[in-house]
Amino acid sequence: MDNYDKASIPSLADCLKAADETRELLIHRGCYTEIPALLERFYQAGGVYLVSDEHTREAAGRRVREILEEAGIPIAGELCFPASPRLHADYSHIAAITGGISVLPNPGGVVPVAIGAGTVNDLVKRAASELKRSYLCVPTASSVDGYTAYGAAVLYEGYKQTMSCPAPLALAAEPEVLAKAPSYLSSSGFGDLASKIIAGCEWIISDAVEPLGVPGADRIDGAIWNMTQPGLMGYLERSIDAARGDAGAVIALFEALAITGFSMQAFKGSRPVSGSEHLFSHVWEMDDLSLDGVPVTHGHKVTIGTLAATACCELFFADPAAPPSPPAGYVRPGLSQRTNSVSSAFKGSRCHDLVVQTAREKYMDSRTAARIGEAVRDNYRELRDRVLARLLPYEKLKEILAQALCPLKPETIGLSRSEAIATARRAQMMRNKYGILDLAWDLGVLEPILSRLEDSETYLR
Ligand SMILES: [Zn+2]
Description:
Elements: H1 12-18, E1 24-27, H2 35-43, E2 47-53, H3 54-70, E3 75-81, H4 91-102, E4 110-116, H5 118-130, E5 136-139, E6 152-156, E7 159-163, E8 170-173, H6 175-179, H7 183-209, H8 222-228, H9 232-238, H10 247-267, H11 276-286, E9 290-291, E10 294-295, H12 298-316, H13 335-345, H14 352-362, H15 366-378, H16 380-390, H17 394-403, H18 417-430, H19 436-442, H20 446-455
Helix pairs in contact: 1-10, 4-5, 7-10, 7-12, 7-16, 8-10, 9-10, 11-12, 11-18, 12-17, 12-20, 13-14, 18-20
């Protein structure tokens, strides 16, 4: 275990205190009856605008509306999206919410209320932020880490991007509703939670190279690390039956996901709980990955990304004595060669210019890169020990994902195995956030690792 694990694990309430946007999280039976009090305490609400879809209105929306009406809180408006086709986080829906609220007689005092899973929450989060007000969230599934995170994943001008917007001031999660959510949503949440293990390993890698002046590397903040990492395995064990509708498991899963969001609020970024596995998923989001016409959930994409990133990590650290060596005759690409490769990898993509810009920001001259190589080789055993002590071995990871009814093979989310492996190249280019793929690229060993992954009889099979 990493040294930071010796500290005690903070409670959910302590994690909530560390968050600076969310003030209250209710998760207990009957908590919807406390929504009027939440509205009074935190929002000075003159009325509410309810947003749901046809499923979540049935699951929770009608009950919430009844409670609000009984409490005398004006329902200023309501927007219910159709159940089919499955709701996308498309920017046009955000415009529908802001438009719906703006035309109300007294829009200033109206509080948007998101009643739904990740997509409804993301839409309302961004709409509320554009209207410069806080919203209240009534989550209906333990499906994502994004309920309590800063930012919303939105399809804007053709590609999925994280738009900035604050987390909800308050949330009210009814365990009975969470437990009745469709199984695929709970397994998505479990996969998203399991991803925090490899994300923690990559934070260790980033921490190790940060003193060398590496772009996109972050030091470990011990207090924030303790919010998510030491308690993670316990939460995964307790939430393993969530997709089978076990109420206790679903509560544990929701709490753990909420804490990961609070850690992002405290860190002011996603580093504590998101690494290369999420970059794989971002690429597939950009590609609009779907299976039989139905978009693959965030959590299921992240699950396959977690398996792929874990495999890359194990392959990088396979030798106990030294990191892998680049192939004979390897020459580090110069800046223009590198930006050309990034440009052609993202040719035709709407985020092309942004990614090419990122490539420039990430690029290190040969001397800095050589220094990193040297430092990693000199301290390899220590770094390997720290990372592997934290990493859940691939076979064990696959076992818990199987128990939690998560996808295990790329084919299950509509990708061939080779396509999933090849994604590592674009994932490495996507963001300036140092992780295992960057380390492999900087040492000139990303391609050999991907070849070994391709040839493996174990990984992603
Ligand atoms: Zn996530």
